[in-house]
């Protein structure tokens, strides 16, 4: 529900009290004094000529205080004008001069010298009155008996009836004596309008005045003019100024009744409203209802703008007069508010007589039009002491750092260079007065040196990054080729060789890079079985690969012969391409000396060999897995512990290898006569190079 935060009759002003005024039926001006004083009002007005202040020759009367009162001067009961009654309070200033030839022993001096002390004090008091378009000066003669003359004491007052003025006008009153012995007294007063006085039936110009109310509903402010229909009136919104003329903002000639809506952001403390009937010599009612409004003061600060005027000036632009203080400060890039200069330079004050609602800083950068865009400059503060001694420090976020100091800041490291730049005229002077100066020294050349090192570091980093990417690329290529594996087996018969060839082909799809003697018969014939095995084993192990020992009845028999005799059985006849027999001289020492784990893996076909037939030396050192029942574990061992695999991918690979092996495995289990075809195919596969 909207809150009504302001409801006030403008005619009542800031206080809702309605004044009832005294009526004067005497049309002529008059003066009266307090008891004990005598006074006389000169006929007609006098010239307002205060003159210069003169020294008092002795006790004199001077005005000490002005007091006003509003009254009505009436020619008839319903024909009155507003009038300002002024009372001037008087006091004695100065002392009697003591005669130089006063007789000793208390005898009186010449009686003629005592005459001034017995005479009454007289004064001519001037009252000056200004209220546009009226200006008057009247002269009052006042006499004070000697008995009331006490230096420094008040003697009474004199009252003048009265100065006529318009409703709602601003009046200025001065009081002084002729001749003038002190500064003038002055008094300023804003007179109420028709609605602030009980004069609706006494002042004819108030009879047709529009009635104006201000109210607020939510974010909107309503000016409600309650006037008869078809009555024409003027409405003006203006900004009242403490100094200088008012600033008009909005003016309309309207026909009643009317409701004017303003946004709450338009409210400022000096916003005033003036309304009057569109008739000759009509009375205008003015009021400023937002002087103490919190929202209006907040809007004023939001609308205030600080303008910098080159070379060394500024201006505060706002709808209302504001008390301001201008001072130099500095701001580090990206560090928020402006910090005071350390040591500070002198401040310049610009103040008017409007109270500040809150303390708020407005800041602008120094004359950006003349200095150009922001630069990476160093601000130097130069301060001058007695005997023209000067010190220079650099403004940094940590404070003002002396240039020739041992601090670990940027300014201290470049202190000598900055001093040379300052002395050689490379720095720009931003401010100067009797106490010091402010300089801006360019840092471009030092920044370029720093950036050269940064670029060098970036190039070095790019080279290292390129090398790492190249190494990673090679590693990715190696990973894409797959891990290497050397497959060793005993060529028991042609069917078993066919089964081995099928296993090697299936493993190449993992991907694995499989080396088997079936596919390297030319190298075997050229190098010999033992030399070929040594070369392949060394390369495979250096690349992080594995050696697969595929056990069969023939392989088991060869291993047992080596374990029993230490050499190959003399009666055993091996094919010239049988690398298994040749490899045992290197394989068995790895197992006997504990070098086999992680480098070897054993396997056998569970339908061709019982697991207990594998010698215990191999089963104790490395995994010996049955194929195809333990294919997933076998493939996982070949891929290695660091290889990443998709969920279910290894199981699918194992199924593919198992399906590929099954026909060859079934062929090995058939009788010898049924394997002739398979034998021929196995021999052909063994001749591949």
UniProtKB/TrEMBL annotation:
Which keywords does UniProt give here? Cell membrane, Disulfide bond, Glycoprotein, Inflammatory response, Membrane, Receptor, Signal, Transmembrane, Transmembrane helix
Residues crossing the lipid bilayer are: 451-471
GO CC terms, sorted: plasma membrane
Q: Where is the signal peptide?
A: 1-20
Where is this protein localized, as stated in its record?
Cell membrane
Please give the biological process terms from Gene Ontology that the record holds: inflammatory response
**Known InterPro entries for this protein?**
IL-17_rcpt-like, IL-17_rcpt_C/E_N, SEFIR_dom
- SEFIR domain boundaries: 482-636
Q: Report membrane topology.
A: Single-pass type I membrane protein
**According to the lineage, what is the superkingdom?**
Eukaryota
Name a GO molecular-function annotation: interleukin-17 receptor activity
Outline the segment boundaries, as ranges, of region: Disordered. 670-689
Keyword Transmembrane applies = yes
Subunit structure comment from the entry: Homodimer; disulfide-linked. Heterodimer with IL17RA. Heterodimerization with IL17RA is independent of the cytoplasmic tail. Associates with non-glycosylated IL17RA constitutively. Binding of IL17A and IL17F induces association with glycosylated IL17RA. Forms complexes with 2:1 binding stoichiometry: two receptor chains for one interleukin molecule. IL17A homodimer preferentially drives the formation of IL17RA-IL17RC heterodimeric receptor complex, whereas IL17F homodimer forms predominantly complexes with IL17RC homodimer.
User: What is the protein name given in its UniProt record?
Assistant: Interleukin-17 receptor C
């Amino acid at each position: 529900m909207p809150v009504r935060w302001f409801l006030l009759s403008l005619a009542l002003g800031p206080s809702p009290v309605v004044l009832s005024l005294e009526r004067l039926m005497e049309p002529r001006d008059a003066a009266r004094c307090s008891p004990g004083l005598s006074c006389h009002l000169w006929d007609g007005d006098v010239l307002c000529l205060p003159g210069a202040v003169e020294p008092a020759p002795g006790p004199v009367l001077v005005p000490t205080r002005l007091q006003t009162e509003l009254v009505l001067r009436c020619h008839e009961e319903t024909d009155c004008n507003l009038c300002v009654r002024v009372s001037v309070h008087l006091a004695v200033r100065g002392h009697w001069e003591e005669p130089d030839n006063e007789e000793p022993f208390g005898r009186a001096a010449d009686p003629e010298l005592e005459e001034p002390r017995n005479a009454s004090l007289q004064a001519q008091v001037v009252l000056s009155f200004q209220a546009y378009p009226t200006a008057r000066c009247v002269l009052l003669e006042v006499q004070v008996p000697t008995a009331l003359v006490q230096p420094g004491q008040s003697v009474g007052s004199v009252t003048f009836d009265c100065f006529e003025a318009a409703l709602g006008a601003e009046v200025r009153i001065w009081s002084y004596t002729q001749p003038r012995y002190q500064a003038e007294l002055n008094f300023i007063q804003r007179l109420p309008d028709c609605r602030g006085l009980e004069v609706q039936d006494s002042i004819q110009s108030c009879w047709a005045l529009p009635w104006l109310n201000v109210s607020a509903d939510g974010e909107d402010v309503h000016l409600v003019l309650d006037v008869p229909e078809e009555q024409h009136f003027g409405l003006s919104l203006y900004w009242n100024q403490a100094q200088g003329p008012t600033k008009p903002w909005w003016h309309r000639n309207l026909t009643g009744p009317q409701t004017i809506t303003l946004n709450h952001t338009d409210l400022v403390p000096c916003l005033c409203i003036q309304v009057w009937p569109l008739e000759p010599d009509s009375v205008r009612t003015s009021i400023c209802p937002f002087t103490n409004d919190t929202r209006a003061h907040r809007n004023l600060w939001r609308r205030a703008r600080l303008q910098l005027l080159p070379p060394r000036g500024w201006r505060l632009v706002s709808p209302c007069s504001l008390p301001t203080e201008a001072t130099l400060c500095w701001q580090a890039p990206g560090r928020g508010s402006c910090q005071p200069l350390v040591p500070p330079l002198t401040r310049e004050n610009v103040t008017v007589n409007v109270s500040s609602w809150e303390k708020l800083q407005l800041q602008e950068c120094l004359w950006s039009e003349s200095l150009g865009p922001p630069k990476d400059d160093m601000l130097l503060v130069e301060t001058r002491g007695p005997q023209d001694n000067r010190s220079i420090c650099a403004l940094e976020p940590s404070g003002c750092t002396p240039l020739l100091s041992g601090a670990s800041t940027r300014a201290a490291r470049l202190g000598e260079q900055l001093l040379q730049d300052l002395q050689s005229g490379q720095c720009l002077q931003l401010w100067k007065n009797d106490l010091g100066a402010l300089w801006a020294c360019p840092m471009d050349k030092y920044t370029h040196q720093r950036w050269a090192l940064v670029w060098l570091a970036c190039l070095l980093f790019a080279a290292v990054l390129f090398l790492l990417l190249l190494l990673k690329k090679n590693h990715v290529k190696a990973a894409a080729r797959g891990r290497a594996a050397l497959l060793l087996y005993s060529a028991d018969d042609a069917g078993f060789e066919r089964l081995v060839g099928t296993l090697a082909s299936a493993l190449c799809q993992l991907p694995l890079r499989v080396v088997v003697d079936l596919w390297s018969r030319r190298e075997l014939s050229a190098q010999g079985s033992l030399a070929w095995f040594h070369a392949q084993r060394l390369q495979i192990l250096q690349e992080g690969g594995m050696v697969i020992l595929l056990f069969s009845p023939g392989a088991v028999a060869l291993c047992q012969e080596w374990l029993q005799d230490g050499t190959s059985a003399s009666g055993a006849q091996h094919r010239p391409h049988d690398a298994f027999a040749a490899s045992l001289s290197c394989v068995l020492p790895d197992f006997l000396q504990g070098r086999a784990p992680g480098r070897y893996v054993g396997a056998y076909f569970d339908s061709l060999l019982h697991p207990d037939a594998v010698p215990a030396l191999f089963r104790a050192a490395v995994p010996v897995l049955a194929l195809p029942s333990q294919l997933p574990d076998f493939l996982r061992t070949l891929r290695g512990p660091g290889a990443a695999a998709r969920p279910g991918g290894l199981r699918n690979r194992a199924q593919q290898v198992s399906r590929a092996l099954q026909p060859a495995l079934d062929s090995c289990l058939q009788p010898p006569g049924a394997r002739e075809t398979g034998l021929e195919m196995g021999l052909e596969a063994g001749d591949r190079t």
